[in-house]
Design brief:
The protein is α/β, with parallel strands linked by helices. It is built from seven helices and ten strands. The relative contact order is 0.20. The structure holds adenosine-5'-diphosphate and magnesium ion.
């Protein structure tokens, strides 16, 4: 089984005042192609830290992050940014859409940055928004959309450049339960249909139970966990 993302002996420590806080302490993890994994752990356990390191947004203090079989530790910041843009999709708890652009434009922009032309980017953006059942709202700006609609646009944007893996940090954490369930269903359909692999931090056990497996953080390590 090909791993699209691998963490090897990853460490991350923070200095808080006079105290050293160890968040990751030899964390090992493999995300296989097409697999959906829930990351379930209490607030403050280190989920966001883990996802930021896995998504090359931060560097670990020790250990290695391997994306699509390429070790990232010794790469330049420019190369890491290119991998992050083209090979990894990221969804945050808050959507971070660009407020002055329409939903369609928000999904087009990462593709234009990558070098696609306007027509190609527009076509794929429209398809993804349709897939996320939000095609009718394509011309609206984020402020004109509901929280659930904004997150569906953010998910479409995250996969715009057809990454092999999607990292999501409590993507439904700000939504009411029925909206969360609807957004997760659309996300799950997209992941399953595209063969994407996903690591999704969530507090929602109902959502976690629908994934292929669950992991949690324990003493700075990533361990399997049965709901
Ligand atoms: P989670 O996402 O599971 O709630 P985080 O990864 O955000 O957890 O944080 C894990 C721990 O690391 C927390 O105790 C948090 O206070 C601490 N932490 C996170 N980022 C920093 C930072 N930049 N500086 C100091 N401490 C941090
Ligand atoms: Mg967090």
């Amino acid at each position: 089984m090909m791993a699209v993302l691998e963490l090897k002996k990853v460490e991350r420590h923070f200095i808080q005042g006079s105290r050293k806080l160890t968040v990751l302490n030899g964390a090992d993890f493999k995300l296989n192609k097409g697999e959906m994994v829930a990351l379930v752990a209490p607030s403050g356990a280190g989920k966001s830290t883990l996802l930021h390191i896995a998504g090359l947004l931060e560097r670990p203090d020790a250990g290695e992050v391997i994306v699509n079989e390429q070790a990232s530790g010794r790469l330049s910041d420019d190369r890491r940014t290119a991998i992050r843009r083209n090979e990894i999709g990221f969804v945050y708890q808050f959507h971070h859409l660009l407020p002055e652009f329409s939903a369609l434009e928000n999904v087009m922009i990462p593709q234009l940055v990558k070098g696609l032309n306007q027509a190609e980017a527009r076509k794929r953006a429209a398809q993804l928004l349709d897939y996320m059942k939000i095609g009718k709202r394509a011309e609206h700006r984020p402020a004109e959309l509901s929280g659930g609609e904004q997150q569906r646009v953010a998910i479409a944007r995250a996969v715009a450049n057809a990454p092999l893996s999607l990292l999501a940090d409590e993507p439904t954490g700000n939504l009411d339960p029925s909206t969360a369930s609807y957004v997760f269903e659309a996300l799950e359909a997209l992941v399953r249909q595209s063969g994407l692999a996903a690591l999704i931090a969530t507090h929602n056990y109902e959502i976690a139970a629908r994934m292929d497996r669950c992991v949690t953080l324990s003493e700075g390590k990533i361990v399997d966990f049965q709901l």
